[in-house]
Amino acid sequence: MLTLMQRIVTHPLLNRRKSSDSTLAVENITPEHSILTKILSRLFPVVLFVLILPHNLQAVSTDQVSTFRSGFDRALAFYHNEQYDQARSVLMSLTATTRGNAHITSAYLLLAAVLEKKDDFKAAERYLQILLRNFPHSRYVDHAYFALARHAYKNGQFGEALDHLLTIIERGKNTSLSTLSETIGCKIVASGIESSELEKLVPVHTAKLAQHWLTFWMIRCHLGFGRNAEAEALAEELMAAKPDQRFVRLTQQLLNRPASHLTYPLRIGIIMPLSGYAGADGREFLRGFAYALKQQPAKIELYIRDSKGNLNEAIKNMQELLRRNVMFFIGEMYGSTSASLAALAASADRPFLVPLATDNGIASLGHDVFQMNNDLETRGSALAKYAYEQLGLRSFATLAPADEYGQAVTDAFTNTIDALGGTIVAQQWYYAGALDFKRQFFAIRQSALRFSPRDSLAVAIYQDSLARAARLEQPELDYTYKPHRETVEDFEVPIRSIDGIFFPIYEEEINLIAPQFALAHIEAIPLGGEGWLTEKALHTQRRYIESLAFFAGKFVSETSMDYIQFKNRYRNVTNSSPGILAIYGYDLMRLLISAVQAGNISGEDIVTYFEKMKNYLGLGGIYSFSNDNHVNSAVNILQYRDGTLSQVVP
Asked: Which pTM was predicted?
């Protein structure tokens, strides 16, 4: 006949899996819906009130006993009727007026339960600690530890919950509660916990029985992460310690179970704006993310939190998920918030993926931080290399917004051109709201005249022709040529000494700058940033920007069969069309699924998988990392030629 613990470890509730092995469906994006939560919510409250009856009343007078019993009974009735405010009032009075008597501990225990129902967990824990501190020999000490374990578990502090449960097991004062603590400890470890949490408890709980449980739980933990060799080595250590026969049976059963039944899911925390001004973008990203998991189920649990587009809210969410022992993090929409969350993850030694932000330096905030989107430095440098090495351009000018984005991407572009041996002829800037760029183009032409005698000669010849024409019309007019001082009319002379001109401008500025660039008669190939990825503006300004080359984030061709098939399937499932953010989410989840299906379960394993990943092909682009650089180095470069937008790199 199976022992109680054998029945617990092999019970279907403990290891039940959905047939798809997936814990998330598109129709139900709800985190923490594991069976463990339901089991504990039933088990924990039962213990409190099956055993919470006043005892040891002989220490006080009959009147005091009667008064306390009457008050306690009223509070208990209020509790059962869910009248928590009334119960709290009665119990506060009892604990304030009844001092120095053992029976007050039952009031403390019930008061903690009432406060917990009112979601005042700090106050509940305070009264439990008072019970433990002032009444160390009370028969309710184990119940207080059990309540503290419940609070820790609900707060996601699994290591602390196990700490309290082990205290009950070590004390061994209450057989039924000790057995229940062992049961729940096994369930907590089976649900997934880092081995470091268990290692912290080894020097704290030195009793032989507690040490055996910790070793057994560590075996389970190693098996959960696929570390079979470590699990078998610990099992040998446990057997050498000659534990109770039940540990021998439990360990053998554990080692004989299929690995697929023991593997932990990858627990991922996602922090995105799902409401507020950026809520629509966050929800679109999440739809693509969830759709990928539905199409290709894997052992992944999602803990989804709404940052509401607020930095403080995002940080609070991150702190809460860290307490819940979430192994892996993804977030957020914008660079400043992503950087803050990445720093928190790095301090907790947890991997962090930045899905969208392009700000420089985020990946350097921690050794396990990855930027799935290229940062501005990578993008600007990649475009410069393409222009120099593939297009054969050697001399360049730049016209960029005078903001953080314009400065960062222009610096990356020009620094790479300098390193390759090219020449930056001119750099011009403009401020937000500018409508007229004549001054900037005039300055670029002036720099070209100083740079190239050929251009200077062309302008001189043109101005001489103007002077001759003026003298023929008005012989008395003294027209003197002044070299390198063009007038507005001098824009008619083409400048040919600049091979390429870099415009990292915003979408709304295309219709302003493109025609003025044409009027400036600078015969250079236009280059740009992701702001140019708008086919409507490209078609409108087509005659001014022939052969434009620019970098972009994710890009899919509307005529690609892969994209057409994806779009049709996506619409059938979500009743919506996929935007670019859905493609970001879809690609990222598929990447994580590939890591999990390759046998990577822990955050550390997935970091190693990412570092070795070269040219992973997603729907919207390629992902490529290295040990030294955790920024995606594969940059999409597009070209607009003859009215057609096509991808030229990679």
From this structure: 0.80
